[in-house]
Design goal:
Elements: H1 2-30, H2 35-50, E1 53-60, E2 66-71, H3 76-83, H4 88-97, E3 101-103, H5 110-117, E4 125-134, E5 142-151, H6 158-201, H7 220-232, E6 239-242, H8 249-258, E7 267-271, H9 277-285, E8 286-287, E9 299-300, H10 302-305, E10 310-314, H11 321-333, E11 335-337, E12 344-346, E13 350-355, H12 359-365, H13 370-376, E14 379-382, H14 393-408, E15 413-414, H15 416-423, H16 430-444, E16 449-450, H17 463-468, H18 519-529, H19 534-540, H20 545-554
Parallel strand pairs: 6-13, 6-14, 7-10, 10-13, 15-16
Antiparallel strand pairs: 1-2, 1-5, 3-4, 4-5, 8-9, 11-12
Helix pairs in contact: 1-2, 1-6, 6-7, 14-16, 18-19, 19-20
Amino acid sequence: MVERMRMGAQKSDESALPLIGIYEISKILGATLDLDKALHDVLNVLSSYLNMRHGAVVLRDEDGKSRLAAVTGMSLRLAREGALKYPFEAVDKVIGTGIPLVMPDAAEEPLLAEYIAENEALEDERVSFFCVPIKTTEKPFGALSVERAWDGSAQYVFEHDLRFLTMVATLIGQTASLHRKVASDRETLLHDSARLHKRMADVRPALPIRGLEDVVGTSEAMARVFGQVQQAAPTKATILLRGESGTGKELVARAIHILSARAQKPFIKVNCAALSESVLESELFGHEKGAFTGAVAERKGRFELSTGGTLFLDEIGEISSNFQAKLLRVLQEGEFERVGGNKTVKVDVRLIAATNRDLEAGVADGSFRADLYYRLNVVPIFLPPLRERSGDIPLLAMYFLKQFNEENGRAMVFSQNALGALQRCYFPGNVRELENCVYRVATMTKTEIIDDVDLSCRQDTCLSATLWHKRNPGEKVAPNLSAPIPVPTGPLIPPIAAAPPVSAPPAGEDVTLDDDLSERDRLIQAMERCGWVQAKAARLLNLTPRQIGYALKKHNIEIRQL
């Protein structure tokens, strides 16, 4: 009795193995964007759970040639170089006809003889060969093959294994098809992006460029931005605005909407960093009545409300990995379901996203999906920090003061000394910080003329200077940037962290530099006088060692060993 129960329990456990195997395989295929690794792990599951050994996955490339995509028992590189005598002729028949191949005794099949001869089997074992096509709804584009050893005298039902392998091949086919579609979309997006970049590059900043409402700037850097905006705005392309916080990304997004064919339709903005994942999903996609506690009525989301117009997603780099997948579907298919609903809603929305994060680093470390990155980064527009267009500071300051005067019934003006002092400030908070600075000094100044002594930095009350440590002890304003070595910025360079105050050069060191030299020449001159020691050159130029390192890379200056 006990023996029968034990055998029954063992048989029950064995019957559950295929179901466990399917579950594990589905988890593997959905957990990574690395198709090669996923296929290798699937073959390992087949081997460990179901004793299906020497598995292989074959996929056809764009030229229709069958290539090994994954194998077990040896490295894929060795297998592709010929170390594995894989029966491509037999497998190509399966791919071509879409009909599975089952050989109960593989040694009897001439097309498999050389392949099977390499595999060791016990004297009383037979080795069966299974090969099933990999396909979705179209014609097969690959095959999955395994071997299974069994006792030739035992009763063996091949249909069970064949049915199981067909299900696994279907899962592989769906995953491989999705990866191919993502790769194809990526190539298309890169091609379109390169084409648009080329067209933008043809717009020379020297030509008269129509300004954008509320976006102030006459510098060459802003002229390039204006040209890119005017070139990209009339299209339907997704735009990704890159730049530090406070550089005016929302104003540029609104300008793109105004210059587009959707100007008469809604412009709706959402700050992704300000909302939790669940609230953000409801905000963007809407919800049905009763979808959750407090959902007392049906509510349309921002995607529906902005249909025909433009949706601006600020701080896109802050969304979670789970929500990235949901957003990707809307961008790819133009459809979604409301929270708590099952009705598909289709929308026509032009998306503009913005971020101050290093998305490339996020893609590299896996925190930001690569497929979503390529969907968003169709037309990137980089907004320069204020320190790289210091010539615009007086114009911006007067613009903000004009706004203050209109709001408060004043007639205040800046003196030339005040504008010069503002132009020498670092402004790590960019345009937003400059606006706050202007409103603060205008509020606290009693006369109608704002002089440099009225500025917070002159009165040692500038919180920005304290927070960012951009001045030396005793200095009233941030360093003069009229001839600076600028801090390089860009998508692959991390932002400069707050640095401690740098100390003065050692006593007796020659600190005289020629101000008439170019940035590169001044940097070389400083390095030579400091014996090519970066830390000393940093003190000499009133910079941090990190900034010196960036500047050396920017100007392609090779470090000399003395």
